Amino acid sequence: DQQVKQNSPSLSVQEGRISILNCDYTNSMFDYFLWYKKYPAEGPTFLISISSIKDKNEDGRFTVFLNKSAKHLSLHIVPSQPGDSAVYFCAATRGGSNYKLTFGKGTLLTVNP
Amino acid sequence: ETGVTQSPTHLIKTRGQQVTLRCSSQSGHNTVSWYQQALGQGPQFIFQYYREEENGRGNFPPRFSGLQFPNYSSELNVNALELDDSALYLCASSLRPAQLRNSPLHFGNGTRLTVT
Questions:
Q1: DSSP characters for B38-60?
Q2: Helix residue spans in B14-102 (DSSP H)
Q3: What does DSSP assign to residue B83?
Q4: What confidence tens digit (pLDDT) does each residue in A59-100 have?
Q5: Partner-chain residue, chosen from A45, A89, A98, that has the shortest CB–CB distance to B98
Q6: Which of A39, A53, B21, B54 lies deepest, with the highest CB count within 10 Å?
């Protein structure tokens, strides 16, 4: 039973355009959500997070939106750059704790020059 | 600041054998978590160690076991290896079990285990 779902295995966008990566979750106990970026041969790197008490969090070119009623979150990258090409994982946890993150399968983003 | 380091980077074992993977936590971090990432999947939580004791476990059988040492480094041991154990094993360190906004997980580059 997959509690965090990323239904798009891959996404390709042009440099300078917006990238939108989507994530759905089924466990209503999740209240803290994170996005990690992973390059080949490296470990996941924390990108941005959001608490369930918010519906939006921004950090530079990255914005995460949370729709609690739909159990859906999305990561927007504007403008997209070739260096953003990586696998993006959505993750969720309960109580905002760093104990036991539940990850989605990831979305491979390719930004074309 | 020294990041999370894992060894070895790659390992090939035969079904039925035992394996030990090692992790040195980031400087100042006292909690270590282990994750398994199978091909095409996201990382799955195996367990977390704090103060040299297991602080919670995911859905993995007892043949997956761990240790944490006084210097906060950690080992993951897998006995009776099965073909499905082939995966990337990731170690992540953080400060004491805490709120993510104050202590995000820092991952190492992982150990790629292949079981033949």
A1: -TTS--EEEEEEETTEEEEE-S-
A2: none
A3: G
A4: 999 999 999 999 999 999 999 999 999 999 999 998 767 678
A5: A98
A6: B21
How far apart are the C-alpha atoms of B23 and B29, rounded to whole Å? 12
Q: Give me the residues paired with residue B36 across strands.
A: B44, B89
Which residue of A4, A98, A101, A108 is the best one to mutate when testing the B interface, meaning the one whose CB has the most B CBs within 10 A?
A98
pLDDT digits (tens, 9 = 90+) for B17-74: 999 999 999 888 889 999 999 999 999 999 999 889 998 899 999 999 999 999 999 9
User: What separation in angstroms does the CA of B48 have from each of A25, A97, A107, B1, B113?
Assistant: 23, 12, 26, 22, 20
Of the candidates B43, B48, B109, the beta carbon closest to that of A42 is on: B109
State the smallest CA–CA distance between residue B80 and chain A in angstroms: 25
CB-CB under 8 Å, A99 with B56 = yes
**Residues B100, A4: C-beta atoms closer than 8 Å:** no
Provide the 8-state DSSP code for A97. B
| Cβ A87 vs Cβ B43: under 8 Å | no
